[in-house]
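Technical annex, item 7. During the second reporting period the consortium partners agreed on a shared format for inverse folding records so that results from different sites could be compared directly. Each record opens with the tokenized structure and is followed by the designed sequence. A conforming record, contributed by the partner at site C, is shown below for reference.
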């Protein structure tokens, strides 16, 4: 097995693990039909679902950025020096740079806690749930395109 193929398989394996957990967390989240964010923060089950979702979203972003992007670039024999990898993969249709940057911003917002600003916390969590669903779709399309390369 080539080094490029091994790198890609490792990236896909890592992403697949995170995706599975995110799908479960999103299913549980939507089944609970949470509405009021102050109630959510007082419900330990919903807090655990959110914690899992946010943790796995972060892990998926890391796996895509550190494993899947380089693995895809390697398997496509894309040169590393000409363009940043994220730009090359955007040009090839695997990733949308604006979406990726928005998802990274959501991640950054989650790192800041505002104990006296419930609406600010709620907005960050709403954005994270949306970002998780969007990143899942992006990854599923990406994975399908990679399967077509085999």
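Designed sequence (site C submission):
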């Amino acid at each position: 097995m080539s080094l490029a193929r091994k790198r890609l398989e490792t990236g896909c394996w890592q992403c697949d693990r995170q995706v599975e957990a995110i799908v479960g967390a999103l299913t549980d989240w939507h089944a609970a039909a949470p509405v009021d964010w102050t109630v959510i923060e007082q419900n330990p089950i919903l807090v655990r679902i959110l914690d899992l979702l946010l943790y796995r979203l972060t892990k998926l972003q890391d796996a895509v950025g550190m494993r899947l992007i380089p693995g895809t670039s390697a398997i496509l024999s894309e040169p590393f020096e000409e363009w940043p990898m994220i730009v090359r993969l955007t040009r090839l249709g695997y990733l949308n740079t604006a979406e990726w940057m928005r998802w990274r911003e959501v991640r950054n917002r989650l790192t800041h806690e505002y104990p006296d600003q419930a609406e600010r916390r709620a907005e960050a969590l709403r954005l994270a749930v949306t970002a998780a669903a969007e990143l899942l779709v992006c990854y599923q399309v990406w994975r399908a395109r990679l399967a077509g390369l085999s």
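Residues 44-75 form the longest helix (32 residues). The chain has one domain: 3-147. All partners now use this format for quarterly exchanges.
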